[in-house]
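ASSEMBLY PREDICTION REQUEST
Request ID: AP-0331
Submitted by: J.K., bench scientist
Number of chains: two
Total residues: 617
Priority: normal
Notes: Please return the full assembly, not individual chains.
Input sequences:
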Amino acid sequence: MMKKSVKKKSLKFIGLFFTVLSYLLIFTPIVVIFILSVNASTKGYSWEGFTLKWYVELFENDVMNEPIMNTLLVAVSSTVIATVLGTAFAIGINALEKKRRVQMMVINNVPVVNPDIVTGISLMIVFSLLSFTLGYYTVLIAHVFFSIPYVILSVMPRLKKLDPNLYEAGLDLGCSRISGVFKVIIPNISTGILSGALMAFTMSIDDFIITYFTSGAEYMNVSTWLYATLSRGRSFTPAAYAYNIIIFTITIAIILFVNLKRDRKEKTV
Amino acid sequence: MGKKLIIMKNISKSFGDQLVLDNFNLYINENEFITLLGPSGCGKTTCLRILGGFETADEGTVEFNGKIINDLEPNQREINTCFQKYALFPHLNVYDNIAFGLKIKKMSKDAIHERVMNILKMVKLTGFENRMISTLSGGQQQRVAIARALVNRPKVLLLDEPLAALDLKLRQEMQYELKEMQRELGITFVYVTHDQEEALTMSDTIVVMDHGKILQIGTPEDIYNEPSSRFVANFIGESNIIKGVMLEDYSVEFFGETFECVDKGFKKSEAVDVIIRPEDLDFISPSKAKIVGIVDSLIFRGVHYEINVLVEGKELTIHTTKHRKIGDKVGLSVEPNNIHIIPRDNNA
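STATUS: Completed
Returned structure:
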């Protein structure tokens, strides 16, 4: 009896230990960045008191303004384009017969598992073969390119769950083939589309490697700008930490919002 | 019955190398309640989907009101469908589900409101307008599906096993209500089911199908009393099928005895199948009977007993209110007009 409870206790302790450890591993970097973002010192290794000036500087600092604007502009526009195209592709793929559908999904998954560096370099080569000037548009195309498969992946399960008769019922009640898609299919896969869009947005904000190879010398987003600054041996302003924390907060807020909304919806169902 | 509203001519349809409809010919009258009856995979749903415009026939034509409609989109046909799993829109409430078709037709708000409220009353769902579909029971969803189709006042309503998911009691209730609605509205109903009882209760005309072919078309009475083949006899209700020989017109031999019957037109001494419904066999005393056997098994079915009697190695099923014990020696009698003769099907 005694032995058993000891064993139980130690098992519980091990479980707790690994839980704490994994959360530490995940969140320590974020906590460190947060501390640095409110540290008055520009050097990472010394604490000179609490400040929010880096957050203010983020919006005043001309050096960082441009990369941030670039990042957001590319993220928003690539998200919109990739979500529209990805949703359309997913609906199209779903309408194929089973064998073709599986083939298409395999093709769709190739860019997902493809290392970013391969995608980046091959896109760069394609752009130079087409003699595009590297810059905003090539980065945008690249981001749309790597976001679409993720949109398809998150829309697809929703489509599969849909009763195939639903679309036919729409047609039966007077929808044309196109308006049936908008009136029946899209409202019923909206959560999939939304999570696909969020995925595309975070993928775009997050990206360094593909942007690095397709942006050319002039155009920079935050991650390539940080890299360039560091590689020139300069230390960058702690406003970069502030930027990271803001992005992190926004992401968490979005995820919480989506999950809470979904939970509530599922409860009523 | 009115005029022919739909004519399906020489329709063939395959999926891959599987022939689902094989040179299918059928006409449907105005205001008719017609049922396509057959086992699953017999092509009845495909037939319905061709009428609705969801599938196109590989060969043949579909005529509607004198016009060929093969190439018309579903939304261009004066036909609405009630789908098997209802296919109600989960993102809309009851009112908007029913109003869906009317809104597409761009009817005025008031007119839509009036029609939706009327149809809700008809399907006994007044007060359910704002409910979401997922909060409704199966029977209620079924009613919404019917209302959603009927509110458009189609010439023809296609119903694909609409009651399959309901429990027995509710199913019987809905059968009755559907039949009432059809009579009231004067709409042609094309009904698909594998449930022979449902078909017998509701239909004006039954089309029995198997393997993409029509086996028999007729009124429920015709189909039940005069099945044209072994398959139909077995599929519609229970049947005792006995091998026999037609001696001459109005005379048939089976179990080594000669029986009077009402069938004629067979060749002399032609081998035939004799069909006798279980409720048409009656117990009489063995000494007077031409058919004598031993009671083999007995099941109580509520209204009647189902008794199996072994006669010369062949098991006959009898539905009767009379009680016999297992092992009893019994005599059986059958009226001449309850003996139904069909040509011998050697494949069966």
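REVIEWER COMMENTS: The longest helix of chain A spans residues 2-37.
SIGN-OFF: pending second reviewer
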